[in-house]
Amino acid sequence: MEEEIVLGVLETFHGILIQDSDNHVREFAKTLVSSTWFSLSFGCLGLFPTEKMKWRVYLMLSSLVDVLLGTDTGQPIRDATSYLPSDPIDLLFLLGQKDSHNLELSSCQSAILLILYTSSLYDERLADDKLVLASLEQYILVNSTDLQSGATDSFTKMMLVHLYGLYRGLTKVSYEIPSVQKLKEYCFR
Questions:
Q1: Domain locations in the chain?
Q2: Dist. CA 137–CA 8, nearest whole Å
Q3: Rounded to an integer, what distance in angstroms lies between the CA atom of residue 1 and that of residue 17?
Q4: pTM to 2 decimals?
Q5: DSSP run (H or E) holding 180
Q6: Chain-centre distance of CA 157, in angstroms?
């Protein structure tokens, strides 16, 4: 398989997704995500780790999120595309870093949470569940001040609670972690 062919297919699919929202576009988007589209997209990045492929994959994912969750919901992915890595493990590493008001890192973290959230809605996993849980916990720890002070928007908090609850349940870890209810109380003070 050649990169140009894959880019052409992705461009065609992306063109369909950015058409005016109608039922056919929404059905096409649902067909893509039911066909493990997130995993396939990152597989393309693994096969062809070029800037062109990275831009095409992330722009397409952002448009897919727009169709599935509502207009401009995918904007955080578009905003962070140039800073996002190709490897899902690198995405998880970035998620667990302290942003210290670094706009590039903060933008990446918003995009990563959105990608994880949307893929989880369609039962896709981009990495091992325990790795995702560990990154989410690290994100919560290093950003606890922003979460408590209200500096983090409510949609991000909602995605975080959803993801934490999902991955906490999937990993069934035995060590003591606050319950999802306590996490909600902590995030939405």
A1: 3-187
A2: 38
A3: 24
A4: 0.86
A5: helix 180-187
A6: 14
